[in-house]
């Protein structure tokens, strides 16, 4: 393993984030909110440390899969560390564990928060929360592939380690071009949502923050009451539409823009994603109507649809306290937390394609019990799924269950009740945001013990990077052949 390459690229990433921190600094000066020094010091730390690493250590020409996984896993850990500094330096979140939790929640697009009142933050800090979502949504690594030439060599290894889902679509021969295409689509949808939110009555600042959080499926809002604080059916509808788009594979958006509409909408995963979303909306509407939660059917549709798509896409925005809904509705919402969005989306969860292939695998196993001599192939969109992909999915699901159970045991061991502990793990591991009971949509993670927050922070990054990337960092064998880093002065 080429440790010099890892350190050099991590240095470039810290340097890049240090430069990005100058944007909220400018926002602070514009609004004169007094937080500019917090961003200045944070930016200087990122630029200085990152620049030093990039200058001292030498990146070799090739990046293999080992370096790729290490760079991706460590980059998120370091990014959250740097991203936490503005909260600490401003004094708004003085405890570093809390600040790190908030920053990791931002970059991993989880949306869980330790803030009891969001409005106490300055405009620039609110913008930084939203910006961490937007950067983390498509991935800092993918952005770096698009704009940093140093990552152009061997970049496919970073792309494979970063992009969520069992398959990675390469839209262009060069990985830099693929990254630019994905970010182009991402930026276009973000600008469209900002435009429509402003038409609906939001000011530019709030529209930008909510568009960043929506397209990243993050959930950080500029209001403690989240989107519900605006009390606008129009805003709710706009955000529902863009949450649905954000939960879709971004390569589909690009192909639709190319005019390949029919071919793009025929995919099995898209049909399952839309079918689950609309079906769950209807079921939750019926549950709310049957239990007398909402008397007016339009009101019922508005709140049921919003919370269904907010949870399914792992965005986590709130317009209603669904913890007060009937157990049947809450059961459906918790189930949706596991599914998440489509592969290649900014959403979390296990992804619909994995669920679909697992169902096909189960169906094949049942058939083989009935007809032992039959030869069955698992197909998706008419194409045979390679055996190694199926095994990878089964392994992922097994690891997912182990991590979820162990994390729940550790969190509840710290004195948290079962519902709060279990759903806090589900919410963070799937990058949802709110859970139930003590971490429900009307509450937050502030009062959880620090050991629980540390475990949940780990769950956020593990879920965002699909478990394997982070799990590898804890395997001693993975680091066994690590070579001393080559510096600029090494021969």
TrEMBL record:
The chain crosses the membrane at residues 7-30, 36-57, 69-89, 134-159, 180-199, 233-252, 272-290, 331-350, 393-416, 454-475. It is found in: Cell inner membrane. K(+) binds at residues 109-110, 218, 314-315, 431. InterPro entries: Cat_transpt, TrkH. Its main location: membrane. It is a multi-pass membrane protein. Pfam families: TrkH (PF02386). Keywords: Cell inner membrane, Cell membrane, Ion transport, Membrane, Metal-binding, Potassium, Potassium transport, Transmembrane, Transmembrane helix, Transport. The keyword Amino-acid biosynthesis does not apply. GO terms for molecular function: metal ion binding; potassium:chloride symporter activity. One of its GO terms (cellular component) is plasma membrane. Signal peptide: none annotated. Belongs to the TrkH potassium transport family. This is Potassium uptake protein TrkH. It comes from Dissulfuribacter thermophilus. The lineage of its organism: Bacteria, Pseudomonadati, Thermodesulfobacteriota, Dissulfuribacteria, Dissulfuribacterales.
């Amino acid at each position: 393993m080429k440790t010099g390459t890892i350190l050099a690229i991590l240095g470039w990433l810290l340097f890049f984030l240090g430069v990005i921190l100058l944007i909220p600094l400018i926002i602070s000066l514009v609004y004169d909110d007094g937080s500019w020094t917090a961003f200045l010091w944070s930016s200087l730390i990122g630029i200085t440390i990152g620049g030093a690493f990039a200058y001292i250590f030498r990146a070799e020409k090739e990046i293999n899969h080992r370096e790729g996984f290490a760079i991706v896993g460590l980059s998120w850990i370091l990014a959250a560390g740097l991203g936490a500094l503005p909260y600490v330096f401003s004094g708004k979140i003085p405890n570093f564990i809390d600040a790190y939790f908030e920053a990791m929640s931002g970059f991993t697009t989880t949306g869980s928060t330790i803030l009891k009142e969001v409005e106490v933050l300055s405009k620039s800090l609110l913008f930084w929360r939203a910006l961490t979502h937007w950067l983390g949504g498509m991935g800092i690594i993918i952005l770096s592939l698009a704009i940093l030439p140093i990552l152009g060599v061997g970049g496919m290894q970073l792309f494979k380690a970063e992009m969520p889902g069992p398959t990675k679509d390469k839209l262009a021969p060069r990985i830099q071009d693929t990254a630019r295409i994905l970010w182009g689509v991402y930026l276009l949808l973000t600008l469209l949502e900002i435009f429509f939110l402003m038409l609906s009555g939001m000011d530019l600042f709030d529209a930008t923050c909510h568009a960043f959080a929506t397209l990243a499926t993050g959930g950080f809002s500029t209001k403690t009451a989240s989107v519900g604080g605006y009390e606008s059916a129009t805003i709710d509808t706009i955000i529902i539409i863009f949450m649905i788009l954000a939960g879709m594979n971004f390569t589909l958006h690009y192909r639709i823009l190319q005019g390949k509409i029919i071919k793009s909408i025929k995919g099995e995963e898209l049909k399952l994603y839309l079918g689950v979303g609309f079906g769950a909306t209807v079921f939750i509407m019926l549950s709310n109507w049957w239990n007398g939660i909402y008397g007016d059917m339009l009101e019922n549709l508005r709140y049921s649809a919003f919370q269904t798509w907010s949870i399914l896409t792992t965005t986590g925005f709130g317009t209603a306290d669904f913890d007060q809904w009937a157990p049947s509705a809450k059961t459906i919402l918790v189930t949706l937390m596991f599914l998440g969005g489509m592969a290649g989306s900014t959403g979390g969860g296990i992804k619909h394609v994995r669920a679909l292939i697992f169902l096909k695998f189960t169906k094949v196993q049942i058939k083989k019990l009935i007809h032992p001599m039959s030869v069955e192939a698992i197909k998706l969109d008419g194409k045979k799924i390679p055996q190694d992909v199926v095994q990878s999915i089964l392994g992922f699901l097994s690891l997912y269950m182990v991590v979820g159970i162990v994390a729940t045991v550790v969190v509840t061991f710290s004195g948290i009740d079962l519902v709060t502990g279990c759903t806090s793990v589900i919410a963070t591991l799937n990058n949802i945001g709110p859970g139930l009971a003590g971490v429900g949509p009307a509450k937050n993670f502030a009062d959880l013990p620090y050991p629980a927050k540390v475990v949940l922070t780990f769950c956020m990054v593990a879920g965002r990077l699909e478990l394997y990337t982070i799990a590898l960092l804890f395997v001693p064998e993975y680091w066994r052949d690590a070579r001393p880093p080559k510096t600029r002065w090494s021969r």
